[in-house]
Amino acid sequence: MTHSAFGFSNSKTSFRFVKTKGKGWKLIPLCFLGLVLAAGLAAAKESKNPKGKAKTTHRIAWRSPAEGLKESLQTKKPILYDITAEWCGPCHRLTSTVFENPACAKRINQLFIPVRVLDRQREEGKNPPDIGAIEEKYELQGFPTLVVQFPGRTDSQKLVGYYGREGTMDFLNKAVK
Predict the structure, then answer these.
(1) CA distance 66 to 78
(2) In a domain, 148, yes or no
(3) Is a pLDDT exceeding 50 seen at residue 61?
(4) CB neighbours of 59 closer than 8 A, spacing ≥ 6?
(5) Does one domain contain both 8 and 43?
(6) In angstroms, rounded to a whole number, what is the distance separating the alpha carbons of residues 136 and 17?
(7) How many domains does the chain have?
(8) How far is CA 175 from CA 58, 101, 127, 137, 170, in A?
(9) Is there a single domain that holds both residue 102 and residue 46?
(10) How big is the CA angle at 81 (ends 80 and 87), to the nearest 5 degrees?
(11) pLDDT tens track for 135-177
């Protein structure tokens, strides 16, 4: 067992009170835990709007598959399907570098009806029927996958993988030309 000022007892445990040689109980882990909890509460309070509802961190106006299809048929704008998964690192990178970038988000919202398709296969063992149907229709090969689908057309354009901000925006701009 290792004695330290932080109270770690070994590599398998953390933040335990450990009696150190003749110095009594160390409170540093408790103070650290208190600071972490306080920061978390402050962040949670900050992420609420004045009415207490959680606000989105994304700048894209995402729709469900059903909402997106309906709106696309009405407006004749193409759907941008973002087929993603919570566990996917490149998907998170796409979100942070493209979808949360103000200029990119503005362009995407202008050109497309954005639809987020969240794969739940790994977490729940299966996907909801609408998600599975989209993944099958567009022959999902990996994450992230972006699909541009114009209403009333059978052809689509697909980008599999993360190609950075420039590569992604280049694909999206070419897809609507």
Answers:
(1) 14
(2) yes
(3) yes
(4) 99, 100, 101, 102, 105, 106
(5) yes
(6) 53
(7) 2
(8) 23, 20, 28, 18, 9
(9) no
(10) 140
(11) 999 999 999 999 999 999 999 999 999 999 999 999 999 999 9
Q: Are residues 98 and 30 in the same domain?
A: no
Residue 170: which CATH number?
3.40.30.10
Same domain? For 98 and 165 the reply is yes
Containing structural domain, residue 26 = 1-50
Average predicted confidence (pLDDT) for the chain: 79
Residues 90 and 16 reside in one and the same domain: no
pTM of the predicted structure, to 2 decimals: 0.68
> How far apart are alpha carbons 16 and 68 in whole angstroms?
50
Quote the tokens at residue 4: 């330290």
CA–CA distance, 71 with 117 (Å, rounded to integer): 16
Task: Please determine, for residue 111, whether its predicted confidence score (pLDDT) is greater than 50.
Answer: yes
For residue 57, tell me if it sits in a domain: no
- List phi, psi (to 5°) of 138: -100, 15
- DSSP assigned state of 116: E
